[in-house]
Amino acid sequence: MRCLQLSLGILHVFILFLFTVCWGGSSADARWKKILVQIDEAVKNYRPCVKDNCECYQRVREQDLAPFQNGISEVLLSEAISRKLGTHYQIIEKKLYREHDCMFPARCSGVEHFILEIIQNLPDMEMVINVRDYPQVPKFMKPRVPVLSFSKTSEYYDIMYPAWTFWEGGPAVWPIYPTGLGRWDLMRESLQSSAEKWPWKKKKSKAYFRGSRTSAERDPLILLSRENPDLVDAEYTKNQAWKSEKDTLGRPPATEVPLADHCKFKYLFNFRGVAASFRFKHLFLCGSLIFHVGEDWQEFFYPQLKPWVHYIPVQSDLSNVRELLEFVRENDDVAQSISERGRQFIMDHLQMEDISCYWEQLLKEYSKALTYKVSANMERPGVRTARPLTVLGEECAAPVPEVLGALEGSPPWLQPPVSGWERVRQLFRRNEQKAYPEETMYITKATFTGSLVGFVYGGIPGYLNAKKQYIEQCGGELYHNRLDAVQSMQRIAMRGFIRYGWRWSWRVAAFVAIFNTVNIGLSVYRDKSTLGHYTIAGACTGSLFRMHLGLRGLIGGSVIGGLLGGSLGTLLMGLQKVTGETFLERKKRKQSELHALKMEKWKATLDIHEDSSEETDDVLQEKDGR
């Protein structure tokens, strides 16, 4: 009986244990059941798109051109041109023409690159291409005019095209992207390399965001980061509109972070900017899970990216963001699967050949809607005649003439050094004003100052010591008068001052030069300033000055020098923080100001060249007419 009771007791405990485990597990599953069901249904209903002949985005083109299925008349296009809703382009006999004015030359150049690449396959046509950030044809506008824009919402009739940023003219972010994010194909390689460096298991299980406050939609994430920094790392950076810390929610603006460094985190946030975000496609390449806020703003490839299949959709007010972050942290395998599907889609269906293919199919289908024959120099009231942009004599696209400022790439002064050694080499080169970099001048001035300090430091004791020795050794010597004695003593003392002053002068100058060269060289090479650089510089200097004593002197000198260098670095970096701007930050600020000034001069030069070119064309046409 006792054995039976004991068996029943054990069975009872076992049943309670199973119930507890099962109930606890089902409770956890129940908490996330709604989200898990959404993911399962989305994946089940998802049909991967066909890559051949841009079929992946065919539906987008059909929907965008549907409002113009009854045809695009010359009157409609003239209306779009006269309202200045974009830049007027013509394609006639495999040649590309553009009106004189282009609001953003680099953006027009990015658009023109793709058109010129496929122009041999295109029929005659003309179109208005908007290179502003915002769409131009709201649905309430009458008449409904055809304008190509890179982004829109469902409230607009604009026809979407692949943005110029796939080639050039993207948003410039100083100092990390002074000329924009750069070519899409090159950025793909860079981010793919970073993703390989940070596989899913090595990534931090934390949400991450860096960006400027272009929209108040981003505020809740910044505030959540301050409340729960273990869950979210989100900060505002500066933009052109930044005036005070009020623009970054009461905190100093954060340092800009390259996209490659975003790959360290598992969860990355994408917000709209003025329109659709240019960073969206880049984030996927990190192999991180993308949290996409809001569904209103679209680019041509957005519709094929499905919520829960390729990314996590977040409500515009971010009311569900904490719940979603907790879900992905507790369901790591599910999160990784979504991130991998998103990355693979971008890798497979958003290559440069897909961009060119979309442009070609879009323009071919658009041209079919034109109800009139396009010809050069069409007379339109209030509209300037289009002028040649480039002439193609071969099957491949020719580069756009420099006179229009539509260059392949950017001006040489816009190209930043891409490696640490290139930055170091720039220390020994003069700039356009024939001046050496600030760091080089700092080393030179510090060395000169050190030599003066050393000269005085060694000279004064040498002077006093020589004077004392003279008095002690020559006290009984007879002179004709007191003046002779004083002059003789002064000559001996000055020789002592110069002798010992020179001895200390070159030592201190060499010490300062070596220390600053090593410290600044490391900072320039790594593009950042740390306490470790001061310590290494001190150790190198100390070891060089004690190496004549052998191995013991070498080790002792490096230890003492490292301690002194670290102490000096702590003091200097502390003073820099008190002043509110470090040496490196001041340098980058000056570079940014110089960059902005050069950009203005460059744009002004382009305008002058365009005006000169147009006048030349007018003169030639007038002569031909005669």
UniProtKB/TrEMBL annotation:
<dbReference type="InterPro" id="IPR051091">
    <property type="entry name" value="O-Glucosyltr/Glycosyltrsf_90"/>
</dbReference>
<keyword id="KW-1133">Transmembrane helix</keyword>
<dbReference type="GO" id="GO:0035251">
    <property type="term" value="F:UDP-glucosyltransferase activity"/>
</dbReference>
<feature type="transmembrane region" description="Helical">
    <location>
        <begin position="554"/>
        <end position="575"/>
    </location>
</feature>
<protein>
    <submittedName>
        <fullName>Protein O-glucosyltransferase 1</fullName>
    </submittedName>
</protein>
<dbReference type="GO" id="GO:0045747">
    <property type="term" value="P:positive regulation of Notch signaling pathway"/>
</dbReference>
<keyword id="KW-0808">Transferase</keyword>
<dbReference type="Pfam" id="PF02466">
    <property type="entry name" value="Tim17"/>
</dbReference>
<comment type="similarity">
    <text>Belongs to the glycosyltransferase 90 family.</text>
</comment>
<feature type="domain" description="Glycosyl transferase CAP10">
    <location>
        <begin position="121"/>
        <end position="373"/>
    </location>
</feature>
<dbReference type="GO" id="GO:0035252">
    <property type="term" value="F:UDP-xylosyltransferase activity"/>
</dbReference>
<dbReference type="InterPro" id="IPR006598">
    <property type="entry name" value="CAP10"/>
</dbReference>
<keyword id="KW-0472">Membrane</keyword>
<dbReference type="Pfam" id="PF05686">
    <property type="entry name" value="Glyco_transf_90"/>
</dbReference>
<dbReference type="GO" id="GO:0006493">
    <property type="term" value="P:protein O-linked glycosylation"/>
</dbReference>
<dbReference type="GO" id="GO:0012505">
    <property type="term" value="C:endomembrane system"/>
</dbReference>
<feature type="transmembrane region" description="Helical">
    <location>
        <begin position="504"/>
        <end position="525"/>
    </location>
</feature>
<keyword id="KW-0812">Transmembrane</keyword>
<feature type="transmembrane region" description="Helical">
    <location>
        <begin position="6"/>
        <end position="25"/>
    </location>
</feature>
